[in-house]
TrEMBL record:
<feature type="transmembrane region" description="Helical">
    <location>
        <begin position="388"/>
        <end position="408"/>
    </location>
</feature>
<keyword id="KW-0812">Transmembrane</keyword>
<dbReference type="InterPro" id="IPR005828">
    <property type="entry name" value="MFS_sugar_transport-like"/>
</dbReference>
<dbReference type="InterPro" id="IPR003663">
    <property type="entry name" value="Sugar/inositol_transpt"/>
</dbReference>
<dbReference type="InterPro" id="IPR005829">
    <property type="entry name" value="Sugar_transporter_CS"/>
</dbReference>
<keyword id="KW-0472">Membrane</keyword>
<dbReference type="InterPro" id="IPR050814">
    <property type="entry name" value="Myo-inositol_Transporter"/>
</dbReference>
<feature type="transmembrane region" description="Helical">
    <location>
        <begin position="144"/>
        <end position="167"/>
    </location>
</feature>
<comment type="similarity">
    <text>Belongs to the major facilitator superfamily. Sugar transporter (TC 2.A.1.1) family.</text>
</comment>
<dbReference type="GO" id="GO:0015798">
    <property type="term" value="P:myo-inositol transport"/>
</dbReference>
<dbReference type="InterPro" id="IPR020846">
    <property type="entry name" value="MFS_dom"/>
</dbReference>
<feature type="domain" description="Major facilitator superfamily (MFS) profile">
    <location>
        <begin position="53"/>
        <end position="564"/>
    </location>
</feature>
<feature type="transmembrane region" description="Helical">
    <location>
        <begin position="359"/>
        <end position="381"/>
    </location>
</feature>
<dbReference type="GO" id="GO:0022857">
    <property type="term" value="F:transmembrane transporter activity"/>
</dbReference>
<dbReference type="InterPro" id="IPR036259">
    <property type="entry name" value="MFS_trans_sf"/>
</dbReference>
<feature type="transmembrane region" description="Helical">
    <location>
        <begin position="542"/>
        <end position="564"/>
    </location>
</feature>
<feature type="transmembrane region" description="Helical">
    <location>
        <begin position="174"/>
        <end position="195"/>
    </location>
</feature>
């Protein structure tokens, strides 16, 4: 697709004192839209208060990652204890995602109608009415009291952890997972906003990315906790229950943190907002800088007032919205969260001999995600969003197709069979909870009809064979390549781009829609993975994800623009559409190398 140097169409909207210019693929936000701040030398300094604030708030990100990752090691023990089939197992995994969708919608409702969380028992009837009227007048600005909602998410995490840990039956367990998911939804919506509004302007981007790292770190810690309790009787209860500890710590610290200066300004409490800014930047900050910050906040509030959904769906915002939603869909439909939710299950399918060993090796999967997320966040501004996305998705696609090929070599395309009719396919046999591999018969049969001393089943895996061990190694290596590619690109780029493709006036609304697409696709893949492996085999499932990833890669190659953010001008953004020469360069370099790498792997 050729880039057009001529202007396809310029739409200029003037909103108060802000201007936005939209030129086909090319979009620039004027300095008026997101005004620059005067340079203050010591504002770059990270104070102990800011570090403490960021650490406390990012505990929500940690809990987000922990509660979505812990299910990987806990799922198989839960299945064994409650005798669950694949559909019920998928419900346990998907319940958190469903709860997150509800929690995210609820958080969005509170953003629009904040009074419900700011009532104080000390108010008189007249004070309450005045405060209520004031808050409703501000409701269209997208401003909330962020601190109480963050506190609410901590309480929800604690309640959910306790309910799951004490669950006497499947129904209570599902309810607990829904509660935890509700907390995840609240945290995913509120924490980035809170951090962006309380972090010092010059450190905002760097401190906000800490939340992304904390999510992956939470997943890594959850895998370590899984190992710690893997051989403990009913250890899965401890795996979930331990999440209450960091939530309780956050609950105790949050009341001492400042409210968002933006929220205080929108409520007319400018003196309190100035005090909060002084606390955030340090007492030695000049008064002129504080006043400048207050002015910036007031101007951004005026800009956000003018944004409507009608403006969001106008032609100049429509394509950025499509790009944002497509990237969020790609993030989920590439199947990555299946790798995180079902990591231990996938490794068990791959031939790791028991639940403990598959849980141990899943640590490497999570550590890879954390490491490459850290690498991505350190290089993405230098390399560029589009470039890192294009190359990393190629690594993902290679990983998925080789993963599918290795599963095909190990298990064939055997799907779920009645009466354990898996023949001599031991790898597929032991995945079925009612089946076992009979060493004397050399075939699969129903467990109840076999000698218990003569069988291999799901808890032990298959007898070791040289060829199967080699394929298991290929499976594991390709899974690592897939996870690394995701963490470098799709794990981060969609979130960064959707905050940069839109003018400030509609940015919040666009982010809400794109995030809803993300969670919806997450629900689809998390509640269908086990059913797909039964219906089209493990190989077919990963090739399906690989096929979707190819389609999204082609979309990214032709439609996703490059975005550079200059350190000397952190607010200014320059978007460069893909050119035909750019596309040809990628294809000429990538295709021969990919073919030479993938075809021999699949043939093996």
């Amino acid at each position: 697709m050729a880039a057009k140097d001529d202007v396809e169409g310029i739409n200029k909207t003037t909103q108060g004192s802000s201007e936005s210019f939209h030129v086909g693929h090319h979009f620039q936000t004027s300095a008026k839209d997101t005004p620059e701040v005067e340079e203050v030398e010591h504002v770059e300094k990270v104070t102990w208060f800011v570090l403490a604030l960021t650490s406390c708030v990012c505990l929500s990100g940690f809990l987000f990652g922990f509660d979505t990752g812990v299910i990987s090691g806990a799922l198989q023990p839960i299945r064994d204890e409650f005798q669950l089939n694949d559909v019920l197992s998928e419900l346990i995994v998907g319940a958190t995602t469903l709860g997150a969708i509800i929690g995210g919608l609820f958080a969005g409702f509170l953003i629009t109608y904040p009074p419900y969380l700011v009532l104080r028992s000390s108010w008189t009837k007249g004070e309450y009415r005045g405060e209520l009227d004031s808050l409703y007048r501000c409701s269209t600005n997208g401003d909330i009291l962020l601190q109480p909602i963050t506190l609410l998410s901590s309480v929800v995490f604690i309640v959910g952890a306790i309910v799951i840990a004490a669950a006497p039956n499947f129904g209570v367990l599902i309810f607990g997972r829904l509660v935890v998911g509700f907390g995840v939804g609240l945290a995913s919506m509120i924490v980035p906003v809170y951090l962006s509004e309380v972090a010092p302007r010059t450190l905002r981007g760097r401190l906000t990315t800490i939340n992304v790292l904390m999510i992956t770190f939470g997943q890594l810690v959850s895998y370590l906790i899984n190992i710690a309790f893997a051989k403990t009787n009913e250890g899965w209860r401890y795996m979930f229950g331990i999440a209450a500890a960091p939530a309780l710590i956050q609950l105790c610290i949050l009341p001492f943190l400042p409210e968002s200066p933006r929220q205080l300004v929108v409520k007319g409490r400018t003196e309190q907002a100035a005090a909060a800014l002084t606390k955030i930047y340090g007492k030695s900050v000049p008064e002129s800088f504080v006043q400048s910050e207050l002015s910036q906040i007031e101007q951004s509030i005026e800009i956000s007032k003018a944004g409507t959904y009608r403006e969001l769906f106008k032609s100049y915002n429509r394509k950025p919205l499509i790009i944002s939603c497509a990237l969020q869909a790609a993030q989920q439909l590439s199947g990555f969260n299946c790798a995180m939710y079902y990591a231990a299950t996938i490794l068990h399918m791959a031939g790791f001999r028991d639940n403990s060993s598959s849980t141990y090796f899943s640590i490497v999967v999570s550590a890879t995600n954390f490491l490459f997320t850290f690498i991505a966040l350190t290089i993405i501004d230098k390399v560029g969003r589009r470039r890192i996305l294009i190359y990393s998705m190629v690594a993902m696609i290679i990983g998925l197709w080789v993963l599918g090929g290795a599963f095909a070599g190990q298990q064939g395309f055997m799907t779920a069979q009645d009466n354990c009719n898996y023949g001599t396919n031991c790898a597929r046999c032991v995945q079925d909870s009612v089946c076992s591999w009979s060493t004397s018969q050399g075939m699969c049969a129903i467990t109840s009809g076999l000698d218990p001393t003569d069988i291999f089943q799901s808890s032990t895996g298959c007898p070791p064979q040289g060829h199967d061990q080699a394929l298991t190694g290929i499976l594991f290596a390709s899974l690592i390549v897939y996870v690394a590619g995701y963490a470098l690109g799709l794990g981060n780029v969609p979130w960064l781009m959707q905050s940069e493709l839109f003018p400030l006036s509609v940015r919040g609304k666009a982010n809400g829609i794109a995030t809803a697409v993300n969670w919806s696709c997450n629900l689809v893949i998390s509640t269908s993975f086990l059913s797909m492996t039964n219906g089209v085999s493990a190989a077919g499932t990963f090739w399906f994800y690989g096929g979707l990833s190819i389609l999204f890669w082609v979309f990214a190659l032709f439609e996703v623009p490059e975005i550079f953010r200059r350190d000397s001008s952190p607010i200014h953004q320059r978007i460069i559409p893909p050119s035909s020469a750019d596309v040809e360069l990628y294809l000429a370099f990538l295709l021969p190398n990919v073919i030479n790498l993938v075809i021999p792997s699949l043939a093996y």
